Queue: 2 jobs
Job 1
Amino acid sequence: MTAKPKVWVSRPLFPDVLARLAEHFDVDAEAVEHRHSADELKRKLAGVDGAVVGLADRIDAAVLEGNTRLKVVANLGVGYNNLDLDALTRAGIVASNTPDVLNESVADYAWALMLAAARRVSAAERWLRAGQWPGSNMRFDDWLGLPVHGRTLGILGMGRIGQGIARRAAGFDMRVLYHNRSRLPEMVERECQATLVSKSELLRQVDYLVLVLPFTPENRHAIGAPELAQMKPSAVLVNIARGGIVDDAALALALREGKLAAAGLDVFEGEPMVHPDLLTLDNAVLSPHIASASEETRRAMANLAADNVIAALGFGEAAGKPPTALNPAVLIRGSAHKA
Ligand code: DGY
């Protein structure tokens, strides 16, 4: 009997998804959350044929060096800036992500942050929980927030998540502007009721700016002090994309000095660390990178990652055709050292 291929799962995952993997593989799944060092990653990946990894696992050339066994790395996330795709491709390793299955949950969450930041939900709750309501003589003009309905929404990065955010804006009777590398097809623009503008027009005109860009070296600090200075002081910034797209220190300063009204942030530069100034600001609504975290969506992401590993290692109906491979060229040319 030939031994089953080995698969490492770097973080605890739904038992039924692990059971699907175990039908084909000898599965080593981490039972507790743990941040793996580069050395640990290198060691773990050296002994397996496939891996399911999380956004905190940085898979780069150094981690892959000397690895002649690994054939597939499935990322639990649509964003894959934790993967060095060139290094994986050079090593003949298939990489995959989890696009589409999370679009609607992330779009929902962008709205949750927008509304919470506009209407000061977190600060008001902190105040209430601190027992400050009784005896406060709360005034009619306390806790005033910003209007959302009828305002202008801007979306920077108009992929499928951005489009989902834009579609929801019709219910709030908002004007929608977007900026993207390329213009959307007319039909999609019509569906989203969205108009393409330059980045600086977007910054200057919107009341709410939602960032949905991928993190690339060019997008680092796409929103920094110069961009924040172009925005209305009454505007709200929402980042559900990636830490590092915003210069968090510049953002904290703008929020403190009243140059920007509020922010809703799900991602941070250097997370899980959060810039200490942001932690002190009542006009920043902060959450720990949970935009995709609904039961249905996280389960779909886990299953899609499993589908990719199963197919890449030659099992199941899609054998040899992992559904969301990021470097399909590896599949076409195959991997010399692993053939
Ligand atoms: C992703 O999938 O990239 C999201 O950031 C996860 O929540």
Note: The mean pLDDT is 96.
Job 2
Amino acid sequence: MLRDHTALITGATSGIGLGIAQAFAAAGCRIAINGIATPQEADLLVSRLQRETDVLFHPADLADPKQCVALIEAAETRFGAVDILINNAGVQYVAPVEEFPPDRWDAILAINLSAAFHTIRAVLPGMQKRGWGRIINIASTHGLVASIHKAAYVAAKHGLVGLTKVVALENAMRGITCNAICPGFVLTPLVEQQIDDRARQSGATNEEATRELLRERQPTEKFTTVEDIAALAIFLCSPAAANITGASLPIDGAWTAQ
Ligand code: NAD
């Protein structure tokens, strides 16, 4: 199904993005990947993924709009087209609003929200010309509900869900779908950091802090896995999902059912 397609995945050097890149590569899709990595780390990653498919790595810093556009252009130049765009790169910072550093606010809005606007804006003309495209934004349960101390992240993810709906509406008749995946907690470096902070603050062990985090939010008390999210992304690119567009799909162990 994905063999004659190219997918571009941002933030694919770690966590969810890396899992999505591995799944699309295993499905035979050509992939362009991006993220923060040393040249050695990037080479290693590319050589591993290249066992499955053609791979391009581009080190764009997505906080910079010009580099977002350069990323799309590099992938289009290498592969001729970007058929599937997965906006996944994201960062987190936790503090009460009155203590939230303005530079962290700006960085989170730039990477978690504005980068998706810039990549979508650059990729759409090609998709519209070809009459087919799939855009998947990795949002979060925090695109649907809020938590304390995550002002920038919650604002950015709610914004990303809104952007998803507008792109879906504007392209509804053009063979292009745009959806958001809204994961609950997934055990990646982004969440490991929050667990470490919790354990440090409460004096609990990491295991206790993990249990407490899940019990508070995720009724199944299980992490969503990177593989679950990758499988949903692949489904959203399948013919069966052609009429799913403008949706924000939770994969969150019933977090947002409460
Ligand atoms: P992660 O920290 O493991 O990976 C983040 C990726 O983004 C890395 O590849 C990193 O290099 C890249 N990145 C960060 N800043 C960048 C920049 N300026 N330019 C280019 N790349 C940059 O995090 P993750 O948990 O895999 O998160 C991936 C996405 O999933 C994020 O958007 C996050 O908000 C979302 N998400 C994560 C969880 C979770 O529980 N882990 C839950 C819901 C949503």
Note: The pocket of nicotinamide-adenine-dinucleotide is lined by residues 11-17, 34-36, 61-63, 88-91, 111-112, 138, 140, 183, 185-186, 188-191 (CB under 6 Å).
